[in-house]
Fold each of these.
Amino acid sequence: MAKKINVPDAVVRVEKSGNRFNAWDTDGVKRTSEITTGARRKAFEGDYLLGRFTNKAGKFYWRRWDGEVASPVDNTSSVDVPTDHAEVLSFIHGSYSLKPQGLMMSELKWKYLIRSAVRGKNIMMTGPAGCGKTMAAKSVVNSLDRPDFYFNLGATQDPRGTLIGNTHFESSKGTYFSESLFVKAIQTPDAVILLDELSRAHPDAWNILMTVLDYGQRYLRLDESDGQATIKVAENVTFVATANIGNEYTSTRVMDKALMDRFTIVEMDVLSEDDENELLTYMFPNVDSTVLGNVAKIASLTRTESNSETARINSGISTRTTVELCGLLYDGFNLVEAAEVSIYPQYDATGGVDSERTFVKQIVQKFCDDGSSDDLFNEDEMAEAEGSMS
Ligand SMILES: Nc1ncnc2c1ncn2[C@@H]1O[C@H](COP(=O)(O)OP(=O)(O)OP(=O)(O)O)[C@@H](O)[C@H]1O
Ligand SMILES: [Mg+2]
């Protein structure tokens, strides 16, 4: 390396903006993403600068720099602390790079999700089963430099215990109350709280959450019989919930309207054939691309069918299922076998040749017969196939 080893080639000052620690170099360029959160936080708290150095292997790294700064950070006009709004704007619009590559989601939806989170909205991810709601919610939580908490409300049989806490009795102590993790979570400023599978939660959970989620109330009521007060939700806490609600249904049919009204809805898109193919290709680079293409086609055909007016099946094959199926292909199962174990069990077999399962099998078989993907499936062919079967 030609560079002098012990002089940094860039120097940043860390500023706190909201709850983020941003690093700006002497040219006013934001370098936040190059430096770990911990290093930025320490530099801010210790009020020192960070310099970028080059190690022997030619790699860059950042560490404390107490030396001189060629052009003082403070005098560079473009380094002026951005107004909060400018900061938020640049964060939102630069946020697509934070989306993990393995998550398929349009740029607009992702930015809307980030924006809602940054703006402290209660977010509800909706969409049919296995379309990436939980994955997207977790990804947004990971993208924000904030304390996060995860609660699976679909899995809990005891909403009161999970959300509020439990009253215990011990002969030595008498009756005492132990708070839930949720109580701690809502008292943590800037927390991002994931409420997974809220739509499957016990109605008691919905009732408890009603005041917590209400922008005008924002408190948790502890059990009245305990004579307990209420607990306030801390500043800047964001809730991200997921609901397994088919896009075609109005959510109010499934969940209480008053509760739904407290959320900003982010509807996950069901992937198009191209996006599905891209995802599978990204995840399974070693599986034959023609077969992956066929899997994407099969899934897409079932999705189109399930949305049609004369639908023969209730739901299309989910992305969760195509990913599982391709995992089987990767492990040496062929498409017929993989479909047999991962797809068919999801479709009702009653009704024989008129059953959902038969219908899906026909679609799959189109792509299995001779391994050729050339005979493209179309609606007429399908109708014909059906006619000949019944
Ligand atoms: N949009 C997507 N991008 C990438 N992977 C996806 C996507 N949707 C689904 N998957 C795959 O499917 C799996 C299940 O996704 P996820 O758990 O996020 O679905 P969900 O919508 O939360 O489903 P449920 O309604 O059953 O809770 C993921 O682990 C991932 O492998
Ligand atoms: Mg989920």
Amino acid sequence: MRTTLDFLLHDWLQLATLLQRPRFAEHALDTYAQVLDTCERIAREKFAPANRTADTQEPRFDGERVHLPEATHAALAAYVESGMLAAAQDYGLGGMQLPCVVEMAANAFFSRASVGLAAYGLVTTGNANLLMAHGTPAQREVFAKPQFAGRWFGTMCLSEPQAGSSLSDVAARAIPDEAPGGAADGDRPWQHDPLGPRYRLRGHKMWISGGEHELTENIVHLVLAKIPGPDGRLVPGVKGISLFIVPKWLVDAQGELTGARNDVALAGLNHKLGYRGTSNALLNFGEGRFPVDGQAGAVGWRVGAPGEGLRCMFHMMNEARIGVGLGAVMLGFAGYEQSLAYARQRTQGRPLTGAGKDATQPPVPLIAHADVKRMLLAQKAYVEGGLALALYCARLVDEQHTGQAAAAAEAATLLEVLTPIAKSWPSEWGLEANSLAIQVLGGYGYTRDFMVEQYWRDNRLNMIHEGTHGIQALDLLGRKVVMNGGAGLKLLAARIAATAERAGQVEGLAEHGNALAGALQRLGAATKSAWATGVPEEALANATPYLQAFGHVVVAWLWLDVALAARGHALQPGKQAALRYFYAYELPKIDAWLGVVARREALPREMQDGWF
Ligand SMILES: Cc1cc2nc3c(=O)[nH]c(=O)nc-3n(C[C@H](O)[C@H](O)[C@H](O)COP(=O)(O)OP(=O)(O)OC[C@H]3O[C@@H](n4cnc5c(N)ncnc54)[C@H](O)[C@@H]3O)c2cc1C
């Protein structure tokens, strides 16, 4: 994986060009290599050995405390020590000002070694980044800094038992906390708390990753809740949602722990298929289990303006979703590498022809069989293609933040259309890669003697969280490809067409260039047909096949672009073979997917409940 990662970063994405930007002026390519080396080493030494333990000894709640294996504590301590929590932050904050693409590449090693352990760090960085973008100076100082230092970890509390995909239905309530100043007076003291407007929260949050543990001395929950209107009712829709900082342990204005517990109680842990290293909690806010100043209600400080909660929460959505996609890629990679090693070592059967017909001849390694090579090729095409996709998008994030105005705007527009793909494509095909890895190992792959079954279980989450597959599809076809007159789709199409045209001049790649140009044309035509009647129900009934086709066209494009960059490189034969695989076995699938999209296939809409 490292060889491919280095090739993609340097030979394909030209990482060196970032060094000319003022923000990265003090870096050198060596700096980046050292960061990658260190993360690769810590992941290998601390995360990988703990991965199975974290899975088999899943988090346990004894009614008072959550217990995690010692190996989890040691792995996370090593991660904190690595400095990766603050890696992208300014030097002034103790960060390294790493570009997003390098930060993500470095974190990828941890996801490959143990995605369930890596999650604590990723969600903590996401929480602290959000506070840096939307918090007051005091909120940044008190709540973001300790997270960058790894003294405290964070969570993101959006989902509720009855509100998952539809966050507009969150029912958690936040009311101004009149308690500190006694009765509400003319000064409204709750508004003048040094840490921000102070509220009391009540409600339930479901599926909270890292929601309870004793890895750190405090946990900073970022919670979506609604502030009731003057009539006491919650404002319907997303406009009513605000965002609050709710620490597990209360702090004073200087950020010192007061020793008092906030009114956040663990109702129970979820017992999951995979990702078991990460504790996952149902949290009760404000039920009176830990009264504050004698009153029920979890104390929370508002971040941003009332009603702006979802906007603040989704500010970092592109990065978070690219991160989920990259995690799915890494699980795919882990399975690919293990099944490849296994196929080289395990012997079974004989070739179909020649000496193979002689049963006295020794058996050959699995990798000698064409069908096994086909399964390995599929995995290679999925995981290396997914890695290219994630890194390309991360590089766009850097362009958006540090590029010249026009390039930055273009990157932002491209990210709008590419983010649903960066999240969903690896989640689906990384999982398929894991399934194929199990298949390569045969019966052994189905046992717990090998890791491939755990990778599959871990990866199964990625089509569900951070917006399900279906929700990503609705976002892509319902919003992203039509927004601003289809500006994002046009920009993307121009980039795809440019690659197809370049390939057209190159022997051995010209036919792929033609195939890509044709696929792009059919994708554009299907997009138009889907919206031909302008009726969202008709267009969107087949949004998921559209997402799948769109993803395959994007990855076909990236494979061709990568193959162009690989000419003359030692990796060329492998990249060329994966390209051939993708164009021969995968790209033709888009016609089935686009067929139902283009004719606005009505079956999913017309199907009646009673017919099932
Ligand atoms: C292990 C794990 C970790 C998680 N971590 C966190 C976390 O840290 N913080 C947090 O806030 N949440 C977290 N989540 C919650 C996660 O984001 C939700 O599970 C997800 O948003 C889906 O919500 P739901 O489970 O209620 O499913 P539902 O919303 O009930 O969806 C069920 C199915 O119906 C489909 N569906 C729903 N609505 C529509 C629609 N309008 N049109 C078409 N199809 C639709 C969905 O695509 C899905 O296939 C986590 C979940 C899991 C399993």
